[in-house]
Design goal:
This protein has about 400 residues and is of the alpha/beta class. It has a domain of about 120 residues. About 10% of the residues lie in helices and about 25% in strands. The chain is built from five helices and 28 strands. The chain has a 17-stranded mixed β-sheet that branches. A three-stranded parallel β-sheet has the order 9-11-13, with no helix packed on it. A two-stranded antiparallel sheet has the order 2-3. The longest helix has 12 residues. The relative contact order is 0.07.
Amino acid sequence: MQLVYNSLQNNCITRVCGKIIAFGILVAIYGLVVANPLAARDEVQRGACPEDYSPCSCNLTSNGLEVVCADVTLENIHDVFYRTQSLYLYSVLLTVTSFSGTVTLPPDVLKDKRAQHIYLRCPSTSAKLNLIIDSASFEFTRFNTTIFEIHDCDLSAQADMNFLKGFAVLHTLSIVNTWNVDAISSLPNNTLLAIKELTISRCTGLGNVVFPDLTPARLERLYLDGNNLNDPQVNNILISIGSSSSSSSLEQLSLAGNALSKVPRIAAFSQLVTYEVSNNDIAFMSLSTLIFSSPVRFLGLKNVSLTAIEGGAFQGNYTYAQVNLENNKLAAFREDVFKSMLQQMTVQPPAVGGQVIVTGNPFDCGCGLAWLIRDNQPLIPSVKNGVCGGFFRFEDLNPDAYANC
């Protein structure tokens, strides 16, 4: 095995370059800025480390020690962490290559070192690297790790998720762009008491298994984007979450980029305020599809091929909501669909209240708009990018033109 250093990129993960088959591990202590880790790394001051980490490199920053192991063997990595004394590190970056197509992480990879953030990365290639994680690979950091991520791997040989057993303070688990994530069904929920965020995105295998009951954990954010999940598969997942302790704690749910033909109902989630189902294929929304118990912050229905919405589909408090209906096929901006929502939004000043974003819809300029243009002019500022007839902006339409409607 060979270790290759790769610079940090989006989502606190390294971008693999060079070797065809590589496996990256990023272990970060304390808070990496997920949105822009490169900027975060550039802003901290660097100095010499108090110990010799060769053949790896090391920087001492205001956050702590950053250790990078590049082009060294796994045996040398074990030696580095065995002989150095610093128990807590800000970050450790390792990249392992395997010409066999499989990497098996042995017990105690970090040699008793504690890490708050752990990121495992395989290269983004068509032939994904098989990753096998021993149940004791991260045993000594289980009381310190708060974030654990796996990116771009193949987990077909991973029998279970027991390597996360006992991770008592883990609050974020992410598996991204990874094949055969069937092992997620064995997530040791009884020891993951602190988990708040679960991301399984652009993966295969999720629809093949029973989604884990995370009780007694109280999930707040669930992101299941781009997994090619169909309606029954998503419904089964939501039934599992809705019957768990997370039903009264889930605040954000994303199902974007799947294979949905209906908007899944979310009435079971009393605290839900953000719901994303964009980039599916949902032609019609029926009555009471969306029932929110808590004030809505964001609703994403962008690019779902929506042609019609039944009156009363949107129920809840939309005073501050951003409702994105961009790039759909709506020809009618109907009163029984939008009036109540817009009235709530206009209670607040335009820069404060919510808005309905309708860019790219082929609205008709006929009498169907009279309720808005003629009778409810104060509601128009809460409609963003409303255009009818191809280029007539709602705010430019003459109310008198609708006098006979």
